[in-house]
Design brief:
Elements (H helix, E strand, L loop, with lengths): L1 E2 L9 H15 L4 E3 L5 H11 L4 E6 L13 E5 L2 H10 L4 E3 L4 H15 L8 E4 L1 H7 L2 H6 L12 E3 L2 H12 L2
Parallel strand pairs: 1-5, 2-3, 3-4, 5-6, 6-7
Length: 175
């Protein structure tokens, strides 16, 4: 499952990396699941679509910004974020997070909470753009203040490229 900003445009480095990683995953037989909208979601769906992979979009009805991108070959529409988040997380083998806004942050922290509390099985959580994520939240400060444990920092891995992400996925999934 890919998460990230709906506002990322084609040509942006993160857009390119999302497309590149989803292509690798689709070629290996993974279904690519996104929120179905523009930006990072579109980039991930494009990568799968171009190589004939399964490209799923779980769209949310919003008054602006969110419309289904044309690169999904299966889709569902949701009225509520909570039900959509369950479906985005439910069957995933890997969570991939790119920089994003409130929605992406909500989805990221929900996943970390589920993993930390062992409500979902352990799986790779790949976080693109260490500088972005560290500018959003100071995880080390959370550890220093006792809000999370040092081990909680192992729930996710920072990555900077599709190749680095693919290496972690291959190792975890036995490819």
């Amino acid at each position: 499952t890919f998460f990230g900003s709906a506002r990322t445009v084609p040509g942006d480095p993160y857009y390119k990396e999302a497309e590149k990683l989803s292509t690798k995953l689709a070629k290996a037989g993974f279904a690519i699941i996104t929120g179905g909208g523009p930006g990072i979601m579109e980039a991930a769906n494009v990568g799968a679509f171009k190589v004939g992979g399964k490209s799923v979009g779980l769209n949310i009805e919003l008054p602006y910004e969110q419309k289904l991108n044309p690169y999904v070959n299966e889709s569902l529409n949701f009225d509520f974020f909570f039900s959509r988040k369950v479906m985005l997380a439910f069957a995933s083998e890997v969570y991939v997070y790119f920089p994003g806004g409130y929605g992406t942050l909500d989805e990221f922290f929900e996943a970390l909470t589920l993993l930390q509390t062992q409500k979902v099985k352990s799986l790779p959580v790949l976080v693109f753009g260490k500088s972005f994520w560290q500018s959003v939240i100071n995880f080390d400060e959370l550890v220093d203040q006792g809000m999370i444990s040092e081990e909680d920092l192992d729930l996710f891995s920072y990555v900077e490229s599709a190749d680095q992400a693919w290496s972690i996925i291959r190792q975890h999934c036995g490819y």
